[in-house]
Design a protein that fits this description.
Strand content: 5-15%
Distance between the termini: 45 Å
Order of helices and strands: EHEHE
Structural class: alpha/beta
Radius of gyration: 23 Å
Strand order of the largest sheet: 2-1-3
Number of strands: 3
Number of helices: 2
Mean pLDDT: 85
Largest sheet: 3 strands, parallel
Length: about 110
């Protein structure tokens, strides 16, 4: 047993950190519509990623006329450094040919 005495009260702390006053800004402007756009699907090594993208591609094709997809298969590498090294040109070619990119984590 502890020798600490308590009056039955405790302090409640917030789990939130201080808010950064700088407004959030996206990396690129959002597309207003996906019709006629080329969408990049970044396929990683996660087990269900391919299945997720297969379904997503089918559903987006039904919803947006003229949409096109370009897959980047990154299932062979697990190190981000590979995209800066031996596969950099291939990755940049993929990036330059798309209007937007989607990455799925398929655990």
């Amino acid at each position: 047993m502890s020798d600490i005495k308590s009056d039955g009260q405790y302090a409640v702390l917030s789990p939130w950190a201080e808010v950064d006053p700088v407004p959030l800004k996206g990396l690129a402007p959002r597309l207003d519509n996906l019709s006629g756009k080329r969408i990049g699907l970044f396929l990683n090594f996660k087990e269900a990623a391919r299945q997720i993208f297969t379904v997503l591609e089918k559903q987006l094709r039904e919803k947006f006329p003229g949409i096109d997809f370009r897959w980047y298969d990154d299932t062979k590498t697990r190190e981000p450094a590979d995209l800066e090294g031996k596969r950099k040109a291939e990755f940049e070619d993929w990036l330059n040919g798309i209007d937007a990119a989607i990455l799925a984590v398929g655990d």
